[in-house]
Amino acid sequence: MKPLALTGEDLTLPAYYEVVLGRRPVRLSPLATRRMTASYDVIRRAAAGNEPVYGVTTGFGKLVDQRISPSDIRQLQLNLIRSHAAGVGEPLTREETRGVLLLRANVLARGHSGVRPLIADYLLSLLNRDVLPVIPSRGSVGASGDLAPLAHVALILIGEGEAFVGPRRVSGRAALARVGLKPLHLEAKEGLSLVNGTQAMLSLGLLALRRCRLLVDAADVAGALSLEALKGTPVAFDPRIHRLRPYLGQVAVAANLRALLAGSQIRVSHLTCPRVQDAYSLRCMPQVHGAVRDAIEYVRNTLSIEMNSVTDNPLVFPDQEEVLSGGNFHGQPLGLVLDHLAIAMTELASISERRIERLTNPEYGDLPPFLSPHPGLNSGFMLAQVTAAALASENKVFSHPASVDSIPTSGNREDHVSMGMGSALKLKQILSNAEHILAIELLCAAQGVDFHRPLRAGVGSRRALRLIRREIPRLDQDRVLAPDIERVRALLASGALTDVLSTSRHVQRSSS
């Protein structure tokens, strides 16, 4: 695979996923090398001068008024890395860590951080060889960026800390040796430039965004199957309705549902039934799923901007020979959108749980109690619905926005913080819960559609049903459902249901 050349200003989402998930190699572009060298020269001259420059000739945070002599500049950067590596908790995942390395190198490549190209080269060497720093997940308040997580990355560059080499944890020095490097001696500002930024929360956010896209596609597929199983009507998805309220997501979901349900014999079988309108969890799928899609798009735009933004401090402007202090490290833009995404995905899972309840509750429709062919002796999907309810309620707790919280740090110098990393971490749990809830709905809906045989579901629904039945047989007698739920969750996470949806849309377009 052709290496990705980092410039710091044109990293795309597809390229990010190719590197983080597909191990595409990465290198610095010649443009980035020139910019970084020019920026470093400005800092080198500032370090030798008499003017106070934050983090170069001064201390950090509350200690900004402390002047640092030229002879102590290297020690200042070393002390910064060691003192800030105070993270706790389980480490970030392999993919999250790869994302941090890529994103941090991309920021430095922009040439406003005042560090040598060698610093970015070290990060990319670790990334390309899949030698990954152990980054504790807790400890960031998202103020001067993700200080603690990024400090644990920087430790490896100076031969300290720990790294994963495959499943093994090795010392930082051993990790560097693995990629043929020696510990760095950090120059002026290089330690500060390694820890200032939003790259930990951003990495988690970008990976969450990908999961959200798969989830919202799976929700459309699951909703279509549930509508078939419950003998609902697709009238609510008529394009004339949605042209009168033309949110992009709403219009797209209505079109998806029409494509999935096209040619349904189950629908034809109950055209004359007296029911005029379905419950909201069926009728309002375009409005609810669509709003989630619009939220995802809004978040995608914000994260795409952040990927190529300089979130360091102070910032170096080589053309003007200036070093300016600012606040680009503040994680508020990310904290807000990740909380928004958490709320949106909680709603997606919540409406799914309501469809599960309708599928399993014998009070609705003509499906047997809890979808068991032999209810009473068998409990069927009774407890699967309970699990979905438990997860849906847990998501509501996690949906409380972290970004509205703030706690002063660093002697009240950092008196307003974003809690963006907290937003990213709880979003992960919400997504895990949502994946399992939708997996349960897919299992229940498939079981419900099977009860309508020999009538066939819509063309797209049948594709989804075949996919599920290749993995999971119909439930005739009670069995342990936990492995079934996990297998369907893995199917969802693989993108297979997105492929079903894409194929259904393509077929409908071709036939219209």
Topology of this protein?
Blueprint: E1 4-6, H1 13-20, E2 26-28, H2 30-48, H3 73-84, E3 88-91, H4 94-109, H5 117-128, E4 131-133, E5 136-138, H6 147-157, E6 162-165, E7 168-171, H7 172-178, H8 190-195, H9 199-229, H10 239-243, H11 248-261, H12 265-269, H13 280-283, H14 285-307, E8 315-317, E9 322-324, H15 332-360, H16 382-398, H17 420-450, H18 459-471, H19 482-493, H20 496-511
Parallel strand pairs: 1-2
Antiparallel strand pairs: 3-5, 4-6, 6-7, 8-9
Helix pairs in contact: 3-6, 4-5, 4-9, 9-11, 9-14, 9-15, 9-17, 9-18, 9-20, 11-14, 11-20, 14-15, 15-16, 15-17, 16-17, 17-19, 18-20
TL;DR of this structure?
With 512 residues, the chain is mainly alpha-helical. The chain contains 20 helices and 9 strands.
Describe this structure as you would to a colleague:
The model has no long low-confidence stretch (mean pLDDT 94). With 512 residues, the chain is mostly helical. The protein is elongated and about 85 Å long. The chain folds into 2 domains: 194 residues, Fumarase/aspartase (N-terminal domain) (Fumarase C, Chain B, domain 1, Orthogonal Bundle); 307 residues, Fumarase/aspartase (Central domain) (Fumarase C, Chain A, domain 2). The chain has 20 helices and 9 strands.
Helix content: 55-70%
Unreliable sequence segments: none
Q: Tell me, briefly, the overall form.
A: elongated
In CATH terms, what is the fold-level topology of the largest domain?
Answer: Fumarase C, Chain A, domain 2
Sheet having the most strands: 3 strands, antiparallel
CATH superfamily of the largest domain: Fumarase/aspartase (Central domain)
Total separate domains: 2
What letter string, H or E per element, gives the SSE order?
EHEHHEHHEEHEEHHHHHHHHEEHHHHHH
Give the CATH class of the largest domain.
Answer: Mainly Alpha
Number of H- or I-type helical stretches: 20
Beta content: 5-15%
Rg calc: 26 Å
Structural class: mainly alpha
Number of DSSP-assigned strands: 9
Strand line-up in the sheet with most strands: 4-6-7
